[in-house]
Design a protein that fits this description.
- It is built from three helices and no strands.
- The protein is mostly helical and 66 residues long.
- The chain has one domain (7-64).
- Helix 2 packs across helix 3.
- The chain is globular, with a radius of gyration of 15 Å.
- It starts with 6 loop residues before the first helix and ends with a helix.
């Protein structure tokens, strides 16, 4: 790996860009094209983002009801 390569940072940037484009009502194919990803990779990124959001929500619910 390159010394300054940060896979987590790169993934977060791709997730943020995908979400921004999705919120503009872009098609999944146009989002994949804009991010230079194939459709399957984009679906994985969206799934990871969704899981992350669900986990954060569950964490918040646990702490707010305690």
């Amino acid at each position: 790996m390159k010394p300054k390569y940060d896979a987590g940072k790169n993934l977060k940037e791709q997730m943020d860009a995908a979400v921004a484009l999705y919120e503009e009502n872009c098609s999944l194919q146009s989002i994949a094209d804009a991010l230079n990803l194939n459709a399957n990779a984009l679906k994985q990124i969206i799934t990871m983002q969704h899981r992350s959001n669900v986990n954060l929500l569950m964490q918040w619910l646990r702490t707010s009801t305690s």
